[in-house]
Amino acid sequence: MSTHLLGLIVALPLAGFLFNGILSTRLGGERLNETAVNLVACALPGVSFVLTLVCFMQLETSGKPLIEATYTWATIGGQGFEVGFWFDRLAAVMTLVVTGVGTLIHVYSTGYMHGDKSHARYFAYLNLFLFFMLLLVLGRSLLVMFVGWEGVGLASYLLIGFWFDDPAKAAAGKKAFITNRIGDAGFLIGMFLLWGAFGTLDMDAINAGFLGPKAPAVSASLVGLMLFIGACGKSAQIPLHVWLPDAMAGPTPVSALIHAATMVTAGIYLVARMSGIYSHAPEASMVVAAIGGATAFFAATIAVAQTDIKKVLAYSTVSQLGLMFVALGVGAYAVAIFHVVTHAFFKACLFLGSGSVIHALGGEQDIRKMGGLARRIPVTFVTFAVATTAIAGIPPLAGFFSKDEILWFAFASSQGGAAWLWALASAASLLTSFYMFRLLWLTFFGASRMTPEVEHHVHESPLSMTGVLVVLALLSAFGGFIPVVHYLEPMLPLPAVPESLHHLEGTLVIVAVVLAFGGLFAAAWFFAGTAQRAARVRETFAGVYRWLANKYYIDELYEAALGRPFTWLSDRVFLQLGDRTLIDGALHAMAASARRGAAAFGALQAGSLHRYALYAVVGVLAAVLWSLRHG
């Protein structure tokens, strides 16, 4: 079914970027400028959300995907590359999340970034990010998706390093950008392989080709692995996970937008969108599930020992993305997207809640210097507690439903489910409950550990921030009742479960709930009062704690194995030997030869009449001698 709304959904945030980036700074008066920026930045994504709802209703009425061919980008060998958009059930769910949660984060930002000297630039980048994310989600072909894929990488670089006058923040932006380029190389190879096999990059045609009766002339496992490398970069899976925790250097709403609802879920969306490939690639799917399970547990262990409120949430995001990949790897694509939706709600609420805490404490992010905030900032506390309970998987909040589905299919799916995979995912879920309630306890309960200066500053955030927190907390509480899996099942069927395992489903649900409450009670027991029990455990296992607090020294390993050798190679070989010795040396030698030759010839024209007479006599004598010898 043809429509003209999809292009408008994508273009509206781009218009906001152009206005905020070009026109807003030319408006008169600082306050008028900020008001105009806020209005445009929030209104246009809001309109995109409304238009997405209209398209959703059209999709439900027609029952067929909405298609919009905007223009032909290029024609090569008679084959045209179109910039076209595709709106099916999967795209509908993702677009509603991106525009809905994205708009809420824009509104929150109006309070959080109030008074910042680069207010307009911030919202310009935020709108630009949303434009590229919508391009990624709605693009019909892998080529259009890849433009959005690279665009969100650019926009995230700009947003993570937004306060670029701080070298550490600028370095974090570069780290995210470069790490993602590694994954993008795999994405490109996968695209080349698919183009060679199909002669098209339209994702619906590629999926149909793999699901058709004739096998395509390309290995599904090879293509699946290449695309998964790209997904590992965007969705921060081992070994490309290192950029996401450092990306907390940007403003906190950026963390909520990029690391909760949008960019980091792009890898999940890619694998789900190309499910036709992975359904015929059991080896690649096994790798997806194994990497996801390992990342989920690995990141959860690190989160247990972090003391920066945003770093805890960052490693939590890495871990939750790992659980989503577990679901994808066992063929439960709709379940993975369900967790994308619920995760967008409670993780956005948690990140924005942490921003409210940081705002209240004048920039303090160390949870060891907090405590006793529950009564001081009650709206932030209640909403943060609801989102914490949701991510822990405690019923009946949203995280329980989606996480329980992941654990069930990790165990029982006929497409790769296994007891070890369930155990790994369950261990990650237990740790999630523990470290999240640890975070809640150290931040909001117990005696205050704040300095007098910080404690004097404590205040609740403005309505523009707390209002968004309330909305997200409600979605975190009731979002599990949204029938995402049922809605997506016609296009993303659930994997079969052997009859012999059905009787275990209730038992595994009970185990999941026990683990969630176990993490809660363990956190309360360890960190009650002055947290002396936790301190004794930390002293007893000081070596283990040091490894966890330092993230297993992965960054240091990468620096030693890659950073310093490549720095030496770049400096000593390419710069000193190649550039300065060979290239510059050759050019300098040529210049020196030219200077010496010019000096020699310049001596012939020194202006001396005696020398000129001598040259004439020598010339005449040479001519006479030559004629005598050859006459």
Low-confidence stretches: none
The average pLDDT value, as a whole number, equals 90
User: Which structural class best describes the helix and strand composition?
Assistant: mainly alpha
- What is the oligomer described by this structure? single chain
Order of strands side by side in the largest beta sheet? Answer: 1-2
Radius of gyration: 30 Å
Largest sheet: 2 strands, antiparallel
N- to C-terminal distance = 98 Å
Shape: globular
The helix content, as a percent range, equals: over 70%
Number of helices: 26
Strand content: under 5%
Q: Please write the string of helix (H) and strand (E) elements.
A: HHEEHHHHHHHHHHHHHHHHHHHHHHHH
What is the count of β-strands? 2
Description:
The protein has 631 residues and is mostly helical. Among the domains are: 339-549; 554-593 and 606-630, no CATH class. It has 26 helices and two strands. It has helices spanning 5-23, 30-62, 89-112, 119-138, 142-160, 167-198, 203-211, 220-234, 243-246, 252-261, 266-273, 275-278, 282-303, 309-329, 333-360, 378-392, 398-412, 419-444, 452-457, 463-478, 484-488, 505-527, 532-540, 542-549, 554-603, 609-630; strands spanning 66-76, 79-87. α2 packs parallel to α4 (119-138), α3 (89-112) runs antiparallel to α20 (463-478) and α15 (333-360) packs antiparallel against α20. The termini are far apart.
